[in-house]
Amino acid sequence: MLDALFEAARTDDRAAARPDLLARVLADAEALQPTLDPLKRRDKPRKSVFAQLFGALGGWPSVTGLAAATVAGVWVGFVATPELLPNGVASLIGADTEIYLAYLEGGSNYGLEE
Amino acid sequence: MPLDAQDEISDDALIVLYANGDSAAARVLTLRLTPRVFSHAYRMLGDRAEAEDVAQEALVRLWKIAPDWRQGEAKITTWLYRVVANLCTDRLRKTRGVALDAVPEPEDDAASAVEMLQNRARMDALQEALNSLSDRQREAVVLRHIDGLGNPDISEIMEISVEAVESLTARGKRALAKALSGRREELGYTDD
C-alpha cells in the first residue's frame, strides 16, 4: 500500500506547480537577473569645469608652477620700490616722469625720402 | 538558446547563462526547478499556499546567488532542497499544531467523482501520515520515495551519512505503515 501511495503522490495534481506560481517565479527571475548594461558601465562621472581646466593646464606640476609664479608676481607688486628695480623699469612706474621707450628726432626723415 | 537544446543543458550551465543575462535560461530554470521545489515543499508542509511561498522564496535565493554560484561545488538541486528544508522547518515551527490540509483544492474534471474522492482521500491520508513523522524523517522519506533521489544525494542534502539516511528512511517508512495500517480498507486497498 505504501509504495502505491508513494507512486500516486508522484503524480498528484496537488503537488504540481500551478501556472501562477511559475509566472511569479519567472517574474522574480527576470527582475533579479543581472544585466550587462554596456552604456551604464561606460559612463564615467562628469568632470567639473574646474577639473577640466585643471587637466587642460597639465595637472598638478603645471598648476603648481603657475601658482608660484602668480604669488611671486603679487609679492613683487607689493614690495617693489624704484630702488629695487632696474633703472629703466623704475622710471616706467614713476608718476612724475614722462619717458618714452623710443625717442625720435623731429628732423629725421627716417629714410623715407629718396 | 535553441528550444531543443534546453533539456541537454545542465543546471550549472544554465545558472551561468542566467547570470550573464540570458532570458531563455531564466525561463528554462524556472520551468525545470519550480515543480520540484514546490512538490517537495508541499510534501513537507502539506499546504499549497505555504509551499508556494517557500518555493518562490527558495528560488529568489537562487536568483540572488546566481552571479556568485561556484561551479562544481554543489548541485543546484541539492542546494535548493537544503534551502527548502530550512524554510519549511522555520514555517513548521511557527505553524505547529495548525491544520495543514485545510485549504480547499480545485476540482479535477477529468477524473470521475468517486475516483477523484478516493485519490484525494489517499493523498490526504499519506500527507497526514507524513505530517506525523519528525521533520528529518519526513524530509528523508519524501526525498527518497516521492522525489526519487538516491541515498548519496539525500545524504548531501541533509548533511548526514548515507547510513543515517537509510536509517531515517527505514524508520520513517515503518512509522508511515503503522500510521496507515488501520486505513487500508477505507482507502480502497484490498491487498498489498
Name the descriptors.
heterodimer; A: 114 residues; B: 192 residues; mainly alpha; Rna Polymerase Sigma Factor, Chain: A; Arc Repressor Mutant, subunit A; 2 domains; globular
Describe this structure as you would to a colleague.
- The complex is a heterodimer of chains A (114) and B (192).
- Chain A is mostly helical and 114 residues long.
- Chain A has a domain at 2-42.
- Helices cover 57% and strands 0% of the residues of chain A.
- Chain A has helices at 2-10, 19-32, 38-42, 49-57, 59-79, 87-93.
- In chain A, helix 4 (49-57) packs across helix 5.
- Chain A starts with a helix and ends in a 21-residue tail after the last helix.
- The model of chain A has no long low-confidence stretch (mean pLDDT 74).
- By secondary structure, chain B is mainly α.
- Chain B has two domains: 1-101, RNA polymerase sigma factor, region 2, helix turn helix motif (Rna Polymerase Sigma Factor, Chain: A); 105-192, Arc Repressor Mutant, subunit A (Orthogonal Bundle), CATH 1.10.10.
- Chain B is built from eight helices and no strands.
- The longest helix of chain B is centred in the N-terminal third of the chain and has 23 residues, at 23-45.
- Classes of the chains: A mainly alpha (114), B mainly alpha (192).
- The A-B interface holds A 1-6, 8-10, 12-18, 21-22, 24-26, 28-30, 32-36 and B 18-21, 23, 26-27, 29-31, 34-35, 38-39, 42-43, 48, 52, 55-56, 59-60, 63-64, 66-67, 105, 108, 119, 122-123, 125-126, 145-146, 148, 173, 176-177, 180, 184, 187, 189, 192.
Q: What low-confidence regions of chain B span 5 or more consecutive residues with pLDDT below 50?
A: 99-104
- The CATH class name of the largest domain in chain B reads Mainly Alpha
Shape of chain B: globular
Global shape of chain A: rod-shaped
- Give the overall average pLDDT of chain B: 85
Rg over CA atoms of chain A: 43 Å
Strand content of chain B: under 5%
- Summed up, the helix count of chain A is 6
